[in-house]
Write a structure and sequence with these properties.
The complex is a heterodimer of chains A (about 270) and B (about 1250).
Chain A (H helix, E strand, L loop, with lengths): L4 H8 L2 E8 L13 E6 L4 H4 L1 H7 L13 E4 L2 E2 L6 H7 L8 E6 L14 H19 L4 H4 L2 H12 L3 H11 L13 E5 L21 H7 L10 E4 L11 H7 L7 E7 L2
Parallel strand pairs in A: 1-5, 6-8
Antiparallel strand pairs in A: 1-2, 3-4, 3-5, 7-8
Helix pairs in contact in A: 7-8
Chain B lengths: L4 E6 L4 E5 L4 E4 L7 E7 L2 E6 L4 E5 L7 E13 L3 E3 L10 E2 L19 E3 L4 E2 L2 E2 L2 E2 L6 E3 L16 E12 L5 E3 L12 E7 L12 E6 L4 E5 L10 E5 L7 E6 L5 E5 L4 E5 L10 E5 L7 E6 L4 E5 L4 E5 L9 E3 L5 E6 L5 E5 L5 E5 L10 E4 L3 E5 L6 H17 L1 H4 L1 H6 L43 H5 L10 H4 L30 E4 L3 E5 L27 H18 L13 E11 L7 E10 L6 E7 L6 E6 L3 E6 L7 E6 H5 L5 E4 L3 H18 L10 E6 L3 E6 L1 H7 E2 L2 E7 L7 E4 L9 E8 L6 E6 L6 E8 L5 E8 L2 E2 L15 E8 L3 E6 L2 E7 L9 E6 L1 E10 L11 E7 L2 E4 L5 E4 L5 E4 L19 E18 L3 E3 L10 E2 L19 E3 L4 E2 L12 E4 L16 E16 L1 E3 L5 E8 L6 E7 ...
Parallel strand pairs in B: 3-33
Antiparallel strand pairs in B: 1-2, 1-35, 2-3, 4-5, 5-6, 6-16, 7-8, 7-9, 7-15, 10-15, 11-15, 12-13, 14-15, 17-18, 18-19, 19-20, 21-22, 22-23, 23-24, 25-26, 26-27, 27-28, 29-30, 30-31, 31-32, 33-34, 36-37, 36-42, 37-38, 38-39, 40-41, 41-42, 43-44, 43-86, 44-58, 45-46, 46-57, 47-56, 48-53, 48-57, ...
Classes of the chains: A alpha/beta (about 270), B mainly beta (about 1250).
Keywords (chain A): Acetylation, Apoptosis, Autophagy, Cytoplasm, Immunity, Isopeptide bond, Membrane, Ubl conjugation
Subcellular location (chain A): Cytoplasm; Preautophagosomal structure membrane
Family (chain A): Belongs to the ATG5 family.
């Protein structure tokens, strides 16, 4: 059970200052607009926080593009909206200066690289499907399926409105082990060397019933060719020690979608 | 659920215990005696020693086992001699028992065994049913079988008096040997022992069944074993069918007995009942196909067996018939099994000798899911036996060499060793330390006197720590009295059982891995789905892992937050403060109405971390009409008022409370909705009113009839009202109708002030502002400006309906049609009266200002605002905010230091941990510490009623006027077994319906009670005139919840009281155990509210209730309804010396007392209140009782007298406060009523509105 409220609270409080700038090429005004600054929660998704950004820049763009979907890039790389903000940041962390400067586009949607996101409902659908996937990995009998619609709603509203208590009142049910010693598998996504994210079935306990740690996860993902010292695992902007138990990590360090998002990079 | 113990035996024959709240096995102090097999029920551990004798270990009892021996001395009156001890031949013995049938000569009454010691000499009891007698204690009657009275009358022909002497079981916390079967203990040793029967239906509470198997294959049943006689009286042989020999057996919690024969088949004892606990006959049961059995284990509803191939099987259908219906299995392979009273199963693994637990055993799935290893480390005792340890080690090694030879010598033992701690090492299992003569394996040697035992290895220390073996102490067999002065072997080794694991003692223990041979769960009370922390590492006990990686993660997270937001304070947040809305469709009855309608309720709150504003709206189903709306800040109490099948909430608001209207009632469609809304409403209303975390030390605690715990915390109110020295409160009274009155909560004494602001009407002839006392006939101050009578301002007083001398100097300085403010300030000698801020005059006191109770405004003044200033915080009873704290209790007691204790329905004591939250708050706001899971048990009753008719006898056909044939105890409501439902889904049934053999008033063998008619009193025997009978059916249920409470020990209590004296660090905590004994808790302080241990305080009479108050006063109430006062309680001797009887008011049985500062308050069994008057430091027992007569409110459920206030709960669940309680008038003047929220208990012991409480007694001059 996720009982360590102090850690959960810290994770929830993770925030990033972002500076949104309109793409220079799209400015349809004499003067370039002022950049727009926002503090965004790490656990949230960009479409949930960019309403104001859109409103701010929409005056400066070509009238034809008024209804266009906005998309963001950092250093020329489009940002995938379906990743939590904290993950997007950590993926590029090595060279970011705060505030994180992101370019806003209304034009030339990169169809190849990004999914369309027309409304908040799209994000909600994505979020809930992630939850269900994580739940299926964690529990033999699925908990999400047995929840009422209002619980789903509460989770979603909790995330959307940045309400820790509201979110965790429901989420703790998902973090229960339900009579077992641990989760069935640890829901995680591992990002390594620009490859699409890695997912494996990894149990939180070893054959002998001992708790597996982060280093054992890396071992099972065959990432230890160069030795442990060559790897760096980042999540929520911090590097969890390699002896952290996986079960505990899954309970406490998962993002709102109930997945652990681990960014693995080589040192040097 | 109190903590309980799991026991285990390792391969060396040592006994270990693992507490359900602990994580490590602790070894029992080693007494040079190994054990081969153990069997346990709570507090009693029976064991088969290495010498093949039976031993008993009684432990974990805070209350000593005591038995009061009684003998009646009988005398008859003769015309010349007066009363004489000469009796008629037809009379009873001179010393007899109560009905005269047994000779009870004092000299012939001895302690039953060496385990007992006399605690006192014979003395005369000087009370009769709570009524005091003369010092010689005689009671008089016409004849012996007649009723005895306390006074002699002309017809008193006989008299008798009662001699009493208490004996005490002195072998607590140590091993006590049970007398062997024969004088020579080795003639027929034992090979198996089993204890059970603790919840046999219909049996007297506390009786136990002990069964044993001898080496001859005979089955023995121990007679008379129970709480008051742990060792029983004697063995009686239970005959077996011809040619059958028993190898092992098991006795379940219900008394069910299965025996395994040497042939590997089963005999089941049938006909076991409370009247016949040893059963009637044996029936055969065949083992699972093709296997031979070795061991059987019985819980409450399950029987598990082990085959000789170590296969475990489960017997199904035992709940309906003792022999069951079929086998299920095999279910894994185990060396030894054990079943707990809750049917949970443990075993010892065959190969690894680890202890396993069967996961997932539930009522519906009694065989569980899988075996899981229990990883609790074993700790061996280092303390106390340090000196003997080296010698012991040496001694073992030499011993094992010699005892190897004894294997061949002794076939008998060899055969039976299967169930014993067999060895993985090459070592004889029955090897015994040499201090026991039989251990050498030679039968002849054992009869030698014990001087032969000289063991070169056993030093002095070792000798002292040896167990008491029957071979040396045949005394218990012969019934001799044990006298520690003369019997050198009766040195009790009292090893105090640690109530909880103290970290400081850790140094005395060292950890080691050990191989287990047997596990015993007979004393484990773990409920289903609620496992102790045995399966995790040590860190999991708190739920937090204080490991380096956790600290590192936390630290780096905190650092990162600082870093990433530093310098960006002015950037706007992406997600701003938003409101949250919650809606549900339900049924509701609006304030003051009982009309239920379908509505939609909506809760809306605004704010991110602190909720600034919240509203609750009742909308029509279409959401287009607002039916009712309130701000959550106006809610004073949110209480669950569910009835089975209808989940309900009541919301009390300022308007409903002050108007004495019924609250807003909401009925939800299900328990889930109720929980959801209860948590949200409570959370939001507490956030809005800033009630969070632990309440201040001066809070009032109360409990509703449903067992929910509430608190009124005056600290937020204080903060709000404090203005300089005074506490100010403003009452808006615009638009009220004059005459208008306002109760002054804190009275109006020197220093207080009041300002009335209002508008003088154009038509005003005169108006008046009065300060009234207890009634309208007494007015302390009457200010009466008159426009129609010479423009004067009359000041006067009214004493008992007679006006005093008018004071009329000065003239009116204000005009009609203007605003005016009248300020009255009470000073030491009189009132200062000001108009519009200008001092007008002074008025000397004519009535003591302490008597002032209310303000009244009459005439042509339209008041708009009243400002009341007091030296104390002003608490208006109707505006008190009651906050639910979490947990389920029936009693709560607190004290001025803020230490709070409670008692749950199963009599478990709990201590408040300082948290706020639990099940009722859902996950919304949990204190990070101190929220523990709580389990409470309750019993539901229904009565089966029958009427007699001449043709068919008793039938369930009543007269049309009779009560329903299935009803509640009053007969007013129809009840039935089928329709009785539990309150919510947090409750579960734990048993089926059974006839309650413990019905008060006594019952016959089928549970019936008889009476002339239903409305009269019932008795256990049918008499000629009895036409009706009834019996009570009971069913147990259990609540699983959580709250900010921690369980205290495993001693059950029924009453508790706390008091902190000024200047003392510790808090006095007194309690009454369920058996009526008094307990004093040692070491309770603000920082250690749980204290350390109970100290038993002897009391002649079993008690019901206790209360301790300031000035070292301790009062108690006996079960007979008389009061007791503790003499000799001082700060240096907090437990006092003796109990002094205080006679109750004539013809009244007191139920509860509460010691206040000025008086002792008592509540009788009828719900009436009495006050003990003239309680002074010189005469602390007071002089007389004064009954409280108030025609409006005369029945109470609870009373709590605190420092200088008295609070009570009326019989209809309304909280009320006694007004005018002072040291001169400790009874007070009248009741002021507050919120009616189904209250049942209140404790205001910590509550004192006085900001500077005076610490000492008030001497009445």
């Amino acid at each position: 059970m996720a009982t360590d409220r102090e850690v959960l609270r810290e994770i929830w409080e993770g925030k990033l200052p972002v500076c949104f700038e309109l793409n220079q090429e799209e400015v349809n005004d004499l003067q370039a607009p002022e950049p727009y600054y926002l503090i965004v929660p790490r656990l949230s998704y960009f479409p949930l926080v960019t309403d104001k950004v859109r409103k701010h820049f929409v005056k400066y763009i070509h009238p034809d593009k008024l209804d266009a979907e906005i998309w963001l890039d950092y250093n020329g790389t489009p940002l995938k909206w379906h990743y939590p903000i904290g993950v997007l940041f950590d993926l590029n962390n090595s060279d970011i200066q705060l505030p994180w400067t992101i370019t806003v586009h209304f034009d030339k949607f990169p169809e190849e690289e990004l999914l369309h996101c027309t409304s908040r409902e799209t994000v909600e659908t994505h979020f809930l499907s992630c939850l269900k996937e994580a739940d299926a990995l964690k529990h033999r009998t699925q908990i999400v399926m047995n929840m009422q619609k209002k619980d789903h709603n509460q989770l979603w509203l909790g995330l959307q409105n940045d309400k820790f208590d509201q979110f965790w009142a429901v989420n703790r049910k998902l973090m229960e082990v339900g009579g077992e010693e641990s989760f069935r598998y640890i829901p995680f996504r591992c990002y390594y060397k620009d490859e699409p994210c890695l997912q494996r079935l990894i149990k939180p306990l070893s054959e002998s019933g001992c708790r597996k740690t982060l280093s054992q996860l890396l071992e099972e993902l065959n990432m230890l060719q160069d030795g442990l010292s060559q790897l760096k695992v980042t999540t929520h902007g911090i590097e969890p020690p390699l002896d952290t138990p996986l079960q505990w990590m899954s309970e406490h360090l998962s993002y709102a979608d109930n997945f652990l998002h681990l960014i693995v990079s080589s040192v040097g | 659920m109190p903590s309980s113990m799991l026991f285990a035996l390792n391969s060396e024959g040592r006994v270990f215990g693992l507490a359900t709240n602990g994580t490590k096995w602790r070894e029992f102090p080693y007494l040079s005696l190994d054990f081969k097999q153990i069997s346990a029920v709570p507090h009693f551990l029976w064991a088969l020693g290495g010498d093949r004798q039976i031993y008993l270990h009684v432990h974990g009892l805070d209350i000593p086992i005591k038995v009061k021996e009684e003998s009646y001395e009988n005398q008859r009156w003769y015309p010349l001699d007066g009363f004489s001890k000469r009796l008629l031949p037809t009379d009873r013995y001179q010393f007899s028992n109560i009905d005269g049938s047994v000779d009870r000569t004092l000299e012939k009454i001895r302690v039953p065994s060496m385990a007992w010691q006399w605690e006192s000499e014979w003395h005369i009891e000087t009370t009769l049913d709570g009524e005091p007698l003369d010092h010689d204690g005689w009671t008089y009657a016409v004849d012996f079988p007649a009723t005895f009275y306390s006074t002699k009358q002309w017809s008193s022909c006989v008299r008798r008096r009662k001699w009493v002497r208490t004996r005490k079981y002195s072998a607590l916390n140590s091993w006590c040997a049970i007398a062997p079967l024969h004088k020579d203990p080795t003639q027929e040793p034992f090979i198996y022992i089993s204890v059970g029967g603790q919840s046999m239906s219909g049996a007297v509470q506390g009786t136990l069944q002990v069964w044993a198997v001898t080496a001859h294959g005979r089955v023995m049943w121990r007679k008379g074993v129970g709480m008051t006689c742990p060792e029983g009286t004697r063995w009686s042989c239970i005959p077996l069918p011809q040619g059958k020999e028993v190898k092992s057996l098991s006795c379940g919690t219900t008394g069910l007995v299965w025996a395994i024969l040497w042939s590997g088949t089963i005999l089941v004892r049938v006909g076991i009942s409370a009247a016949m606990p040893m059963g009637e006959s044996w029936v055969d049961v065949s083992p699972p196909e093709g296997s031979k059995l070795m061991e059987v284990n019985i819980g409450t509803n399950s029987v598990w067996v082990l085959t000789t191939e170590n296969q475990a099987w489960f017997r199904k259908g035992v709940e309906s018939s003792p022999s069951g219906t079929g086998w299920v299995g095999p279910i894994g392979s185990m060396l030894s099994l054990t079943v707990s009273p809750t049917d949970q199963v443990f075993g010892v693994g065959v190969d690894d000798r680890n202890i396993y637990f069967r996961v997932g055993v539930t009522m519906t799935e009694p065989t569980g899911k899988r075996w899981r290893c229990l990883n609790a480390a074993a700790q061996l005792s280092r303390g106390g036996s340090v000196s003997s340890l080296p010698s012991y080690a040496r001694h073992r090694s030499t011993q094992s060499l010699t005892s190897m030879g004894s294997v061949e010598q002794c076939d008998l033992f060899n055969e039976t060793s299967r169930s014993a701690p067999t060895s993985l090492r090459n070592q004889a299992p029955w090897q015994k330390p040499s201090s026991l003569p039989t251990s050498e394996g030679s039968v002849e040697k054992s009869s030698l006197p014990n001087s032969e035992i000289s063991d070169e290895n056993s030093d002095e220390c070792n000798k002292k720590r040896t167990a008491w073996s029957p071979i040396r102490s045949v005394g218990s067999l012969l019934g001799l009295e044990a006298n520690p002065d003369t019997d050198p072997h009766a040195e009790w080794d009292v090893t105090v059982w640690p109530e909880r694991e103290l970290p400081c003692a850790e140094a005395d223990w060292y950890q080691a891995s050990t191989l287990w041979s047997q596990v015993e769960a007979g004393a484990v009370g773990i409920p289903l789905n609620h496992l102790p922390n045995w399966f995790y590492g040590n860190n999991h006990t708190t739920g937090l892992e204080e490991t380096p990686w956790r600290l590192k993660i936390l630290e780096s997270l905190k650092k990162l937050h600082q870093k990433s937001l530093k310098g960006f304070d002015n950037i706007e947040l992406a997600i701003d403060m938003r409101s949250c809305v919650k809606t549900v469709e339900c049924r509701c009855a609006l304030i003051g109405s009982d009309n239920w309608e379908e509505v939609c309720i909506e809760l809306e709150w605004v704010g991110a971390y602190n909720i600034d504003l919240a509203t609750l709206t009742i909308l029509s189903l279409e959401k287009n009409v607002v039916r009712w709306q309130t701000l959550l800040s106006e809610v004073v109490c949110i209480a669950c008022t569910s009835e089975p099948g209808s989940p309900r909430l009541s919301i009390h608001t300022l308007s409903s409370a002050s108007g004495s209207l019924s609250p807003l009632k909401i009925q939800f469609s299900g328990d889930l909705d109720l929980d959801d809304w209860l948590s949200h409403l409570t959370y939001v209303s507490c956030k809005v009113t800033h009630h969070e975390g632990s309440p201040g030390p001066n809070s009032i605690w109360a409990i509703t009839k449903l067992g929910d715990v509430y608190v009124f915390d005056q600290d937020p109110l204080k903060e709000q009202q404090q203005k300089g020295e005074l506490f100010l409160k403003e009452f808006k009274c615009k638009g009220v109708v004059v005459p208008w009155k306002k109760v002054l909560e804190n009275g109006f004494t020197a220093g207080d002030s009041i300002t009335v602001e209002g508008f003088i009407t154009e038509t005003c002839g005169r108006f008046a502002v009065n300060l009234e006392c207890e009634n309208e006939d007494n007015i302390a101050l009457h200010i009466n400006p008159r426009f129609d009578d010479g423009m004067v301002v009359i000041r006067n007083s009214l004493i008992n309906g007679v006006w005093g001398t008018e004071e009329r100097e000065g003239c009116v300085t204000f005009e009609k049609g203007t605003r005016i403010s009248v300020t009255i300030t009470c000073q030491k000698d009189g009132f200062k009266i000001s108009f519009n801020g200008m001092v007008f005059t002074y008025f000397e006191h004519r009535i003591e200002p302490e008597r002032i109770k209310q303000l009244r405004i009459t005439g042509g003044l339209e008041p708009c605002r009243v400002n009341y200033g007091s030296k104390e915080v002003i608490v208006s009873l109707n505006e008190m905010f009651w906050r639910q704290m979490g947990g389920h209790l029936v009693t709560v007691e607190t004290c001025a230091a803020g230490v709070t204790w409670g008692i749950s329905a199963d009599n478990t004591p709990w201590v408040y941990t300082g948290g706020w939250g639990g099940a009722f708050l859902g996950g919304l706001e949990n204190s990070s510490v101190g929220i523990n899971s709580m389990i409470d048990t309750c019993r539901c009753f229904v009565y089966e009623n029958q009427r007699w008719n001449p043709l068919s006898g008793f039938t369930p056909r009543g007269l049309p006027t009779d009560r329903p044939m299935w009803s509640d105890s009053t007969g007013c409501h129809k009840r039935s077994k089928e329709t009785t439902r539990l309150l919510s889904f947090h409750w579960t049934w734990t048993s089926d319906w059974y006839v309650d053999f413990l019905t008060p008033g006594g019952i016959d063998s089928d549970g019936w009670q008889y009476a002339v008619d239903f409305s009269t009193s019932f008795h256990p025997r049918k008499m000629m005139t009895d036409y009706v009978r009834r019996r009570r059916w009971a069913r147990d249920c259990r609540l699983q919840t959580s709250g900010p409470w921690a369980e205290v020990g495993n001693t059950k209590v029924k009453s508790i009281s706390l008091q902190v004296s000024t200047g003392l660090e510790w808090v006095c905590v007194w309690a009454v155990a369920v058996n009526g004994d008094t307990l004093f808790r040692k070491g309770v302080t603000v920082s250690n509210p749980m204290g350390d241990s109970w100290e038993h305080v002897a009391c002649e009479q079993p008690l019901n209730s206790i209360s301790c108050g300031c000035g070292n006063q301790v009062w108690a109430v006996s079960v007979t309804g008389s009061a007791y006062w503790r003499f000799g309680v001082t700060t240096s001797n907090p437990t006092g010396e003796v109990w002094e009887l205080v006679e109750p008011p004539k013809g009244v049985a007191i139920k509860k007392v509460s010691v206040g500062r000025w008086a002792v308050w008592a509540l009788d069994s009828e719900g009436k209140l009495y006050v003990r008057k003239e309680v002074t430091p010189v005469f602390p027992e007071g002089t007389h009782w004064q009954a409280l007569t108030d025609p409006a409110i005369d029945k109470f459920l609870s009373v709590s007298a605190s420092g200088d206030e008295v609070w009570a709960i009326t019989s209809d669940g309304q909280v009320c406060k006694r007004l005018g309680v002072t040291c001169h008038n400790p009874v007070g003047l009248s009741w002021c009523l507050g919120l009616q929220a189904n209250w049942s208990y209140i404790s205001s012991r910590s509550y004192t509105s006085k900001t500077h409480p005076s610490s000492s007694f008030c001497f009445i001059v």
